[in-house]
Amino acid sequence: MNNWSMKIWILGWFLLVSVACQEESGVQPVGDTVAQSDKDDQSDETDEVTDEEEQVDVPPATSELSYLALGDSYTIGQSVAEEDRWPVQLVAELKSEGQEMSAPKIIARTGWTTTNLIHAMDQEKELSARYDLVSLLIGVNNQYQRQPIERFTTEYPILLDRAIALAGGEPKRVVVLSIPDYGVTPFGQSADPERIAGEIDEYNRLKKQMTENKGVIFFDITEISRETKSNPSLIAVDGLHPSGQMYARWVEMVLPWITEELKP
Predict the structure, then answer these.
(1) Residue 17 pLDDT level (bands cut at 50, 70, 90)
(2) Binning pLDDT at 50, 70 and 90, where does residue 233 land?
(3) What is the rounded distance in angstroms from the CA atom of residue 217 to the CA atom of residue 34?
(4) 223: which residues sit within 8 A by CB, 6+ positions away?
């Protein structure tokens, strides 16, 4: 055997020994086999993640509409039960029509003027950024306390702008009610009812003008309040504030408009 033949024989023997050693040690050859193995492993991991994601419980989104009621004694329902307050009656009626509504958020207190309501909203810690419906009824205590009407015409637009902003910037999601005439009540009859009626009318004239200039609906419930003179059942036991029956009349007036505006 010449030197060249010897070299070929030695090289062949070395390759056979190398392959044998790899098979005994379990070493896998690199290439498509390993790549496919990795793909299988990745596929298993992907399937596991998918299974876990499918098992996660996602809470359903609420479809309840929200309502913010701003005002004074007429909104908080002085001298009537909670269920007789007009914002609460309104929500109850909307629910009876199949509308999903949360309980009304009420920011109101007996005796509040426009100044008090502005301050209360400034201090309120639980106001949402947006409500589906906002109502505003304020001004009677400005008149009752004989405040300059210029204060009302300055502060009322501030409250109206805030109401619109809280309704997501949609004026048609805001409802304004006129100031009732308490001069016809037993309490008002002893406090110059004609003067009260005249001043209430002037407040309402200005209020209606400012409200409609902003594109907000204005409901005149003052005439309903004046029915008290011939229908004592519209007055609460305190002889001054509306009864639940009068509040129901207010709801009856505003309900068709609100129902239409809350349609998706």
Answers:
(1) very low
(2) very high
(3) 73
(4) none
Spatial distance between the Cα atoms of 252 and 89, rounded to a whole number of angstroms: 10
Whole-number Å distance between alpha carbons of 177 and 254: 9
22 or 83, greater pLDDT: 83
CB atoms inside a 10 Å sphere around CB 184: 20
Q: Is the dihedral of CA 153, 157, 158, 163 positive or negative?
A: positive
Going by their DSSP bridges, the two strands 105-108 and 133-137 should be labelled as: unpaired
For the record, the structure tokens of 230 come out as 């011939």
Instruction: Check pLDDT > 90 for residue 246.
Output: yes
How much of the chain exceeds pLDDT 90, in percent?
75
Residue type, 147: Q
Whether 95 contacts 101, CB under 8 Å: yes
| DSSP letter for each residue of 11-60 | HHHHHHHHHHHHHHHTPPPSSHHHHHHHHHHHHHHHHHHHHHHHHPPPPP
In the chain, the domains with their CATH numbers are 3-55 (no CATH), 67-261 (3.40.50.1110)
* Helix, strand, coil content of the chain in percent (nearest 5): 60, 10, 30
pLDDT of residue 61: 53
